[in-house]
Amino acid sequence: APNKCYEQKQYKNGLKFCKMILSNPKFAEHGGIVSCERFVYVCFYFLNLIGWHVYGLLQRSDKKYDEAIKCYRNALKLDKDNLQILRDLSLLQIQMRDLEGYRETRYQLLQLRPTQRASWIGYAIAYHLLKDYDMALKLLEEFRQTQQVPPNKMDYEYSELILYQNQVMREADLFQESLEHIETYEKQICDKLLVEEIKGEILLKLGRLKEASEVFKNLIDRNAENWCYYEGLEKALQISTLEERLQIYEEISKQHPRAITPRRLPLTLVPGERFRELMDKFLRVNFSKGCPPLFTTLKSLYYNTEKVSIIQELVTNYEASLKTCDFFSPHENGEKEPPTTLLWVQYFLAQHFDKLGQYSLALDYINAAIASTPTLIELFYVKAKIYKHIGNLKEAAKWMDEAQSLDTADRFINSKCAKYMLRANMIKEAEEMCSKFTREGTSAMENLNEMQCMWFQTECISAYQRLGKYGDALKKCHEVERHFFEITDDQFDFHTYCMRKMTLRAYVDLLRLEDILRRHAFYFKAARSAIEIYLKLYDNPLTNESKQQEMNSENVSAKELKKMLSKQRRAQKKAKLEEERKHAERERQQKNQKKKRDEEEEEASGFKEELIPEKLERVENPLEEAVKFLIPLKNLVADNIDTHLLAFEIYFRKGKFLLMLQSVKRAFAINSNNPWLHECLIRFSKSVSNHSNLPDIVSKVLSQEMQKIFVNKDLESFNEDFLKRNATSLQHLLSGAKMMYFLDKSRQEKAIALATRLDETVNDKNVKTLIKVSEALLDGSFGNCSSQYEEYRMACHNLLPFTSAFLPAVNEIDSPSVALNHTANYDVLANEI
Amino acid sequence: SRIKLGDVTPHNIKQLKRLNQVIFPVNYNDKFCKDVLEVAKPVCFDDIAVGANPKRLYIMTLGCLAPYQRQGIGTNLLLELQALNHVLNICEKDGTFDNIYLKFGSEIIETKKNYSKRIQPADAHLLQKNLKVPSGQNADVQKTDN
After folding, report:
1. Which pLDDT value is given to residue A191?
2. Could you say which of A123, A521, A718, A821 would form a disulfide bridge with A713 (CB–CB 3.0 to 4.6 Å)?
3. DSSP assignment, residue A779?
């Protein structure tokens, strides 16, 4: 704006504007305000330049990078060779991934300062990122030649330069050149292992298999546990038969008798009798030695039912024998097994039967192990896991607590215990558990947020969600989102730092990581939960508490009203105590915060407004908030069907038909038989037919595309087909049944009967799925059906007697609004026993 | 050998408590456990706590989990004590006491009737091992090994 004023000769306004900028206390030092208007002409030039530069810096510190770039460009119009501004501009451009702009700016910097090595490097990197490998390599080679490092000298920065250069060659598929290059300079490369690995990779690509095999053999000699080296060796030797492969493993095993990998890999490959032989050997060695992660190492074989039964036979026989005679089998002699062998066998069997879903047996074995050795933490850890799989989360937390109490210096088991407590919705207890390791003086929640401890925060999100505490959950979702923002933001300093330190490979890796940062599972979890909650809040917005209670008291008898009022009074009293406690806590925290704030004043980032649960859960436009979380998922996690189904749910409520169509199409391409997708398709189709007033072209596109999916079938037949196709899968039956009711409420009985099937033909009658069905019976998907729910609960209880969700409720639930808060029911149920 | 001696710290003291609970018929209270922090040594077999020996001069408890007995763990514990004078009361239980302590050179000083109020048989022998100031005649005693 000051520039415009200058151009239009509106000096007075221009001056006013300058005064405004410069009166900001942050840069009062950039003085030069001259009151005398005779000098305004000259001063304007410099003020503008400084003004724009400084304004740009301000914007940058406020993280408004786009704006900052504009400011810098304006400044450059006045002084196009200003080095400082060009440098600052380049940093912003790479931060915002304006690669073309970055390249231009770096070109200018190179012209201005050709002797500075950062100029060359920066320019080369720009071409590399733009995938113009030729230019990048030309520049890097030019630059390398200027480095003049004598061939017998080892210089880390030069070594990194060589390796970076080589990486660019390989990305450009210039394998021959890359090989020659690395052979030429290998003596000056510090990372000797990497040199070998690169050689191996390239020799394979060039088809020089004999040489490649030599390289991989050497690599295996260095480290016999790296599976990649075995892969490389097999490719190099063009191994085709199983026998040849086994031979290699045998040889390597002889050379490296203590290596696990050459004994483990064959187990994946061989079938039947051969497998039994090898497995027997493998197990005996590891049980004798005492190898706690043995089951984990073998777990990946459990998709193969034949192998599973062989393992079971072998290990149960060991157990029976060791109990009587200290040998793996009754007719052996030699050295007896120490008592720990039986222990590890029982530990293994507990995990084995847990994996197979035979929880009673699993508990028997782990309890036998605990009886013999009650000091071993791993045993309690597994016991807790078994209870988790059973679905009794309180019991699981209890045993995990026992495990951590045996070694309170072990942060791993402490964290596991906190996680199990969160799964059991014991949020306060979990926080207390973490506080044993978090910083003194702040609350654990705060410290864990500061430390970006996202595993904890995402588990909290789920726990709050289950408890219906949407505000608290959303707060944590936003905290996680902020971490991702910060991690993206923090790369800024590395643009200068890495150039200076020449750690170029790491730098490029960092840029590439930041490009896909929100692909990480933590972001997905937070985003998914946030979207689910915002959808719920859109469907059932939270109103004033008292209003809701007014509505309730109208339909309620005097006795019940009295009960309700006394409950209210008790609740208020409790709330008051809680309030006082919170107040004391807050005061303490505020003292800490003030201290922190004084320290952190320089680092003001400006955007961190406080996250208040009550405000978050009463937000005006929940769907808009949901979309904010959705967008990175659509960009980065498009291969996960849930992304598109969540998108559908949002667009469905927004009434955006074409976006709904886009979502279901993408989901359909990933897995057309997905149960949730099936429900979305039917609801979508119904919605389209209900909306007769859509613009012509939209209707045309919709019917054309839906034709491909529904193929002329009416919705009922489409649903019937789905049910027939998936008759043995409870998940699918549930979805089909829900849609049956949705399409025709008169078929309620039949639909419920379908969803509650528990006969042998149904495959996935596991804890998770059965709980899903019972939740559906309660949340209105099948209308009013409390008696059917009760029947179902009893039947599930017979099937899974230990699972908390199906245990009979002792207390009666007196809240009249059952449907809204069915999660509270589960809390009650879970509290039993 | 796979037997090692570990240290008792406030972090793993519960393992020691657990061992005492399981091995000994008598329950020791929490104060005992606190005092024990200075001198107790749990014995680990492959890093699993299986045996414990809490008190130095007067041996209050020395024991090993049942499945791990007869593996040389008790011997290991007593080897630690070799250089110390020690004294203990031991209750006769199926005549199993005539063993490790005597092997290490302890002597029965006296027998106390009805020593224990809680376990049967109630009698106890007082065993003591004294190392005199090293001189020629006692050098053998010190060098006793198993």
Report:
1. 95
2. A718
3. T
Domain count, chain A: 1
3-state secondary structure of A162: helix
Cα–Cα nearest to A261, from A303, A236, A302, A233: A233
Residue type at position A13 = N
Mean pLDDT of chain A: 87
Count interface pairs A-B at CB distance under 8 A: 50
Q: Do B45 and A340 lie within an 8 Å CB cutoff?
A: yes
Answer whether residue B35 is part of any domain: yes
**DSSP codes joined into one string, A17-31:** HHHHHHTSGGGTTS-
Q: Do A407 and B67 touch (CB under 8 A)?
A: no
In a domain, B16, yes or no: yes
Q: Is residue A98 part of a domain?
A: yes
In a domain, B142, yes or no: no
Cβ <8 Å between A409 and B12: yes
Q: How many residues does chain B have?
A: 146
Sheet containing B124-129, strands listed edge to edge, beginning at the edge strand earlier in sequence: B86-91, B124-129, B107-112
| Inside any domain, residue A391 | no
pLDDT exceeds cutoff 70 at A35 = no
CA distances from A684 to A32, A675, A782 (A): 65, 14, 19
CATH number at residue B49: 3.40.630.30
Quickly list DSSP for A65-97: HHHHHHHHHHHHHH-TT-HHHHHHHHHHHHHTT
Nearest chain B residue to A375 by CA distance is B15
pLDDT at A254 over 60: yes
Q: A701-732 b/e with 16+ CB inside 10 Å = b?
A: ebeebbeebbeeeebeebbeebbeebeebbbb
Of residues B11, B46, B67, nearest to A407 (C-beta): B11
Residue A591, pLDDT score? 66
Quick check: A76 and A85 in contact, CB under 8 A? yes
Question: What ipTM was predicted for this assembly?
Answer: 0.72
- Per-residue pLDDT of B18-66, as tens digits, reads 888 888 766 666 666 666 655 556 666 555 666 666 544 566 667 777 7
> What's the per-residue H, E or C state across A494-549?
HHHHHHHHCCHHHHHHHHHHHHCHHHCHHHHHHHHHHHHHHHHHHHCCCCCHHHHH
Nearest CA in chain A to B71: A338
Residue A512 has pLDDT above 90, yes or no: yes
Q: Are B70 and B96 in contact (CB under 8 A)?
A: no
Task: Provide the domain limits for residue A55.
Answer: 1-130
Residue A655 lies in a domain: no
Contacts of A410 in chain B (CB under 8 A): 11
In a domain, A336, yes or no: no
Helix H segments across A555-621?
558-599, 613-616
- CA distance, residue A412 to nearest chain B CA (Å): 14
The CA–CA distances, whole Å, from A21 to A16, A76, A199, B43, B135 equal 9, 18, 58, 73, 94
Q: Domain count for chain B, please give it.
A: 1
Closest partner residue to B11 among A374, A376, A409, by Cβ? A409
B111 CA: distance to closest CA in chain A (Å): 33
Structure tokens at A567: 């409950």
- Contact (CB, 8 A) for A441 and A403: no
Q: Please give, rounded to a whole number of angstroms, the shortest distance from the CA of B72 to a CA of chain A.
A: 11
Task: Decide if B49 and A375 are in contact by the 8 Å CB cutoff.
Answer: yes
Q: Does residue B3 belong to any structural domain of this protein?
A: no
User: Is A327 within 8 Å of A321 (Cβ atoms)?
Assistant: yes
- Choose the closest CB to A340 out of B10, B14, B48: B48
Range among A335-339, A528-532, A773-777 rated most confident: A528-532
- Domain containing A31 — which CATH number? 1.25.40.10
**Is A339 within 8 Å of B9 when comparing Cβ atoms?**
no
Q: Which amino acid, residue A642?
A: D
Residues in A closer than 8 angstroms to B67, CB to CB, are 339, 342-343, 372-373
Give dist(CA A90, CA A104) in Å, integer.
9
> Residue A494 is encoded by which pair of tokens?
């590395």
